[in-house]
């Protein structure tokens, strides 16, 4: 299949402000919309503290005045309710032509969950799904949030995996609209664990699950500021 198996990998060397990461996704999405047979892309990064609301998400899940948030607040074009991003959380944004990967958004969400479950398995941890909900849980606490968007089957947004992050920022919201289950992080199960250790495991699991070959950008494929 040649280039159809390629996914261009962008790994940020430092935390990326949310709007910069979103703009990068939209740039990559526009490229793939213009050339659906071209290479897919993957962004791996951490965001400084912020909150995002999915399209149609309810402000009722905010425990603060949206006009005066404790960290930047963005309403974006993904599914799902409110979530929190911060340092120590790995964020993976796949920009894929989903017609190459089953053409089914529900299946895509389950594949992203499986990527996280594969990572946890590599760490000797037993992750779980929750029937009727999207994400991954570990020992009853949600460690990965997943929310996606797509335009003409070209995806953006993705998953956020809590590795070593400070969880206090989640107290300002009802994460993913789930009030009766806590948020967790991998560090509490594997002391000393860092995003630097988990990042290559996440990329390896994604590459295997989606059958893509990750490679660095070449020439005009580069993104400004990356």
Question: Got a strand count?
Answer: 11
Number of domains: 1
- CATH homologous superfamily title: Bira Bifunctional Protein, Domain 2
Give the overall pLDDT as a whole number: 94
Q: Please bin the fraction of helical residues.
A: 10-25%
Set down the secondary structure blueprint.
Layout: E1 6-11, H1 18-34, E2 40-45, E3 50-53, E4 73-75, E5 83-85, E6 89-95, H2 105-122, E7 127-128, E8 136-138, E9 141-151, E10 154-162, H3 195-210, E11 213-215
Parallel strand pairs: 1-2, 1-11, 3-4
Antiparallel strand pairs: 2-6, 3-5, 6-10, 7-8, 8-9, 9-10
Please summarize what this structure is.
This protein is α/β, with parallel strands linked by helices and 226 residues long. It has one domain: Bira Bifunctional Protein, Domain 2 (BirA Bifunctional Protein, domain 2), CATH 3.30.930.10. The chain is built from three helices and eleven strands.
Could you describe the 3D structure shown?
- With 226 residues, the chain is α/β, with parallel strands linked by helices.
- It has one domain (5-217): Bira Bifunctional Protein, Domain 2 (BirA Bifunctional Protein, domain 2, 2-Layer Sandwich).
- The protein is 23% helix and 25% strand.
- It is built from three helices and eleven strands; from the N terminus they run E-H-E-E-E-E-E-H-E-E-E-E-H-E.
- The strands form two sheets. Strands 7-8-9-10-6-2-1-11 form an eight-stranded mixed sheet, with helices on both faces. Strands 4-3-5 form a three-stranded mixed sheet, with no helix packed on it.
- The protein is globular.
- The model has no long low-confidence stretch (mean pLDDT 94).
